[in-house]
Write a structure and sequence with these properties.
121 residues; 60% helix; Helicase, Ruva Protein, domain 3; DUF2200 domain-containing protein; SP1917_dom_sf; two-stranded antiparallel sheet; 3% strand; mainly alpha; UCP033199
């Protein structure tokens, strides 16, 4: 799926710190925990809790965030629609990675089991 250059640039320049509180609110509103959110972020990116906190404090952009990440080899198994885009069809790699994270947070908030979210079974 084609995203516009303007959309891709906006995604790249958005800070992780600006979106993270929305992730917390979304999952906690549905009865999930910050710890579960961190498990999902760790699975996708390889970041540990202290890394996540540092990236928030440094106000890194999503470009910087994913430049520092080690994407899980099963990340391409993340499929479905998020924000009107089918994640597996997004052509811009960075935009796709941001949408992978969005999709995982969405699955967590919808009550999906962690084993399924983390593509373990």
């Amino acid at each position: 799926m084609k995203t516009t250059d303007k959309h891709d640039e906006r995604m790249a320049n958005m800070t992780f710190a600006s979106v993270y509180p929305h992730y917390i609110t979304k999952v906690e509103k549905k009865g999930r925990t910050q710890e579960e959110l961190h498990q999902v972020i760790t699975w996708l990116t390889g970041f540990q809790n202290e890394d996540i906190q540092r990236l928030i404090e440094e106000k890194v952009t999503f470009k910087e965030f994913f430049d520092q990440a080690t994407l899980h080899p099963n990340a391409p198994l993340i499929k479905g629609v998020i924000c009107g885009y089918r994640v597996e069809e997004i052509e811009n790699p960075l935009t796709q990675q941001v949408r992978y994270l969005d999709k995982l947070v969405d699955e967590l908030a919808k009550g999906k089991k962690l084993e399924k979210i983390l593509r373990q079974s």
